[in-house]
UniProtKB/TrEMBL annotation:
<feature type="region of interest" description="Disordered">
    <location>
        <begin position="25"/>
        <end position="61"/>
    </location>
</feature>
<feature type="domain" description="Glycosyltransferase 2-like">
    <location>
        <begin position="62"/>
        <end position="224"/>
    </location>
</feature>
<dbReference type="InterPro" id="IPR001173">
    <property type="entry name" value="Glyco_trans_2-like"/>
</dbReference>
<dbReference type="InterPro" id="IPR029044">
    <property type="entry name" value="Nucleotide-diphossugar_trans"/>
</dbReference>
<protein>
    <submittedName>
        <fullName>Glycosyltransferase</fullName>
    </submittedName>
</protein>
<dbReference type="GO" id="GO:0016740">
    <property type="term" value="F:transferase activity"/>
</dbReference>
<dbReference type="Pfam" id="PF00535">
    <property type="entry name" value="Glycos_transf_2"/>
</dbReference>
<feature type="compositionally biased region" description="Gly residues">
    <location>
        <begin position="49"/>
        <end position="58"/>
    </location>
</feature>
<keyword id="KW-0808">Transferase</keyword>
Length: 401
């Protein structure tokens, strides 16, 4: 019985991995406009100050950064965003921080929005983004977490990607410096691939299987305002996937694209923090129905954890060895997801049993605290079942760009 179940899990994993062979092209910085008229203006998109108009006919881009007690991490993010000529407005929503977040944002030159008290039923990040969206003036809005490190060309690439999508999220390269931190992080990352396949499948998945990365999202301002997206997922701890699945169910074209060398994220400072914080959100418990949660956990246990355990016990089967070979090949591919890949990525398969334990634990006993706030939001509201009034129409595909 166990062998049959493991064989089914192996087939599921192989099918999901095979999708990556025809994955969508990664986000890439657009080629610079070198026409004489552009050279005379001094570039394709010259900075003219907050709210100004840029040359080249490109849409104005507002960047919204929700920040709660981000004094230590906000500076590098703002420095990179403010230096990009594609950005016309930078808004930092100070979500009732107790440190110098607002002071640093203002000193760097960002527009600081003082977040209002958190209403009942809202999770803090959605509330901050909801307020930031109300203040944004650009046709395109990009939301970034404070721990992101954008590189030149990211915002132009996101703008270009919105020609084919209504909501775009970017997969970054991760900064993980310690051996244990990188190994655990890569093991967690592998579970996402086992459950959902590589970034950018050739055909969009059904809305209830869409995934997204809330560290970097891009969309058209007016379309998101009409959809009232952040309010509709106000109570979700897994806010990014809830938003993507809700909008996909409305008919939005949602793209999760590889940002390649255009975005880095320094999420955690230690392996313990990876275990505690990322392990808390990865099960996607509040946006996934119980049957899918059980199926996803079964795939992780049977296709990743069990082969590693049997290898450690010196009793691997042929199927175990096949799955371990697949996992090693995946490890090679995962190296591209790290800014400085090291031995931790290569050794990550050894931690797959521990990762399976953590995912199971977080599924059965979800944590409802984040950034010194405790949430009591009641029964999970699954994103594929969100219905708040009439379903908004999908964005106008022919809206002026």
């Amino acid at each position: 019985m166990l062998a049959a179940a493991q064989a089914v899990a192996a087939v599921v994993v192989l099918v999901r991995l095979a999708r990556g062979r025809r994955r969508l092209p990664p986000l890439a910085a657009p080629e610079p406009d070198t026409s004489p008229d552009t050279r005379a203006r001094g570039g394709s998109a010259a900075w003219t100050g907050h709210g100004g108009t840029r040359g080249g006919g490109s849409p104005e881009i507002s960047v919204v950064i929700p920040a709660r007690d981000e004094e230590r991490r906000l500076g590098p993010c703002l420095r990179a965003v403010l230096a990009d000529p594609a950005v016309t407005e930078v808004i930092v929503v100070d979500d009732e921080s107790s440190d110098g977040t607002a002071r640093i944002a203002a000193a760097r030159g960002a527009t600081v929005v003082r977040g209002r008290p958190l209403p009942d039923g809202w999770v803090g990040k959605q509330w901050a983004l909801h307020q930031g969206l109300r203040e944004a003036r650009g046709e395109i809005v990009v939301t970034l977490d404070a721990d992101t490190r954008p590189r030149p060309g990211l915002f132009g690439a996101l703008d270009a990607a919105l020609g084919d999508h209504d909501l775009v999220s970017a997969g970054p390269r991760f900064v993980c410096d310690g051996l244990a931190e990188q190994a655990l992080h890569a093991s967690f990352l592998a579970t996402l691939v086992y459950r959902f396949g590589p970034i950018g499948p050739p055909a969009p998945p059904p809305p209830h299987r869409v995934v997204a990365n809330g560290q970097c999202l891009a969309f058209r301002r007016e379309a998101m305002r009409r959809a009232d997206g952040f309010a509709r997922v106000r109570g979700h701890m897994t806010d990014d996937v809830a938003l993507a699945r809700t909008l996909a169910a409305d008919g939005w074209r949602v793209g999760f694209l590889d940002a390649g060398g255009l975005l880095e994220v320094d999420m955690h400072e230690s392996a313990a923090e990876v275990w505690r914080e990322w392990g808390r959100s990865l099960p996607l418990r509040d946006v996934t129905r119980p049957a899918w949660q059980a199926a996803d956990l079964a795939v992780v246990w049977l296709a990743a954890a069990l082969p590693a355990l049997r290898l450690a016990a010196g009793r691997p089967t042929r199927l175990d060895l096949t799955l371990l070979a697949v996992r090693v090949l995946l490890t090679t591919a995962l190296r591209r997801s790290y800014a400085r890949p090291g031995a931790g990525v290569l050794l990550s398969f050894l931690l797959d049993p521990a990762t399976a334990v953590r995912l199971t634990q977080a599924t059965l006993r979800p944590v409802r605290t984040w950034r010194s706030r405790a949430y009591s939001l009641g029964r999970p509201a699954f994103a594929d079942a969100v219905t708040r009034g009439a379903r908004p129409a999908p964005p106008d595909r022919n809206a002026p760009r």
